[in-house]
Amino acid sequence: MASLGQRLREARERQGLNLGDVEASTRIRKAYLAALEEEDYASLPHPTFVKGFLKSYATLLGLEVQEVLGLYPQLNQRPVLAPVARLERPGLGAGFWVAGVALLAVVAGLAMYLYSSYSAPWMPASLQGAGSPASQEEVLPTLPPASAAASPTFSASQASLSSPALSPTPVPQSVEVRGRAIARSWLWVIVDSTPVFTGTLEAGQEATWVAQEKVFMRVGNAGGMVIIHNGRDRGVLGRNGQVLDVQWTKDSMYFDINPPLPGPR
Fold first, then answer.
1. Residue 27 and residue 20: Cα distance in Å, rounded?
2. Angle, nearest 10°, between helix axes 47-61 and 19-26?
3. For residue 179, what pLDDT is reported?
4. Is 225 helix (H, G, I), strand (E, B) or coil?
5. Is the pLDDT of residue 122 over 60?
6. Cα-to-chain-centroid distance, residue 81
7. Into how many domains does the chain fold?
8. Any domain includes 87
9. Structural domain of residue 36, as residue ranges?
10. Could you give the angle at the alpha carbon of 155 between the alpha carbons of 152 and 161, nearest 5°?
11. CA gap 68, 18 in Å, rounded
12. pLDDT tens across 155-177, in order?
């Protein structure tokens, strides 16, 4: 079975293409294309970027993408995952229940004290003097004459209602970028200086990236991507076939900036 470099070189030569032609069509640097055909993996960037190179190169040459990816050895290495320690849920000790019972007793005692302190002045005289002789004359409250009643007067400060303070607009705590392809578009995405995606979204496919500070995106077809940034619909990024660099932060976006890492152009 032919190796990766031999497979790519033979397919390119059958179509009469040189490395310059491939670079113009895929926007992959000629040095990276030569390194792939010579299997000089030390001269290539991170395997995440190489995976995107191989997909674009194989598509251009009409090769099966998964078969080509399977020939790249560094994509088939599986990371070794360390076992996760199981956390035991702590139980409630006897001290917790003792403290709870004591707190309930204090609250009940305070409630009884407040009730006895504030209820006596409002009790009727007949109940307060229950121990006095029955012949004691009941004291009735004296009402003021009707002529003495006056309409209540309210000052402007009492009548006005203070308007509630407006709370400031909350600042998002993270950056969420959701992309929806309306046409086939190639993407390279970096989240907080870490490359997370290099590939192609077909029409109708969606992807979401969340960062603490920023999301950088290089789009191969700006007219084919619709972006929603922190819940705000930004619409289509640009024109059909336009290659565009854009960076998203918590509250803004910037176009045509330098990427945080060297990458495919």
1. 10
2. 110
3. 93
4. strand
5. no
6. 26
7. 2
8. no
9. 4-75
10. 110
11. 19
12. 444 444 444 556 566 667 899 99
Local structure of 141: helix, strand or coil: coil
pLDDT over 70 percentage in the chain: 68
| Residue carrying the six token digits 């995440």 | 48
Written as six digits, the tokens of 176 are 């969420």
CA distance 19 to 28: 10
Show which of 47, 75, 103 is a domain's final residue.
75
**Amino acid in the structure at residue 185:** S
**Domain end among 56, 75, 94:** 75
Look-up: residue for tokens 């599986």? 78
Query: Please, what is the end-to-end C-alpha distance for the chain in angstroms?
Result: 32
Q: Determine the length of the chain.
A: 265
Mean pLDDT on 6-31: 93
DSSP secondary-structure letter at 183?
S
Beta strands in the chain (DSSP E): 175-181, 185-191, 194-201, 206-211, 215-219, 225-229, 232-236, 244-248, 253-255
Report the predicted TM-score, pTM, of the whole model to 2 decimal places: 0.37
Q: What is the pLDDT of residues 206-219, one digit of tens each?
A: 999 999 999 988 98
